[in-house]
Design a protein that fits this description.
94 residues, mainly alpha, 12% strand, globular
């Protein structure tokens, strides 16, 4: 099951995007969309979820050229928790 199987508005979709930004070597919009299972046309979804993380969780997400990175996780989310969710989705051992 990919994250695209989660219903619209499901928190796990946003967590997957944050995990992808943190873990991918080159987190572009298309790379994030692919890693999260949103496919080639998932760029709009990724952009919306990035804005949701900024607005609702106060996560600082920076853009350097085409690449995104987490500047600060904000007061609500912890990196370790997001990465546990990311690892669980991708069967990566801790």
């Amino acid at each position: 099951m990919t994250t695209s199987c989660y219903p619209k508005g499901d928190l796990r979709r946003m967590l997957a995007v944050l995990g992808a930004i943190d873990q991918l070597p080159h987190p572009t919009i298309s790379a994030i969309a692919d890693a999260c299972g949103f496919g080639a046309t998932g760029g709009r979804t990724v952009r919306l979820l990035i804005e949701q993380a900024r607005a609702q969780a106060d996560v600082e997400i920076l853009k350097d050229g085409y690449y995104y990175r987490i500047g600060h996780w904000g007061p609500l989310l912890k990196r370790d928790g997001v990465l546990k969710a990311w690892r669980g989705r991708h069967n990566v051992s801790e």
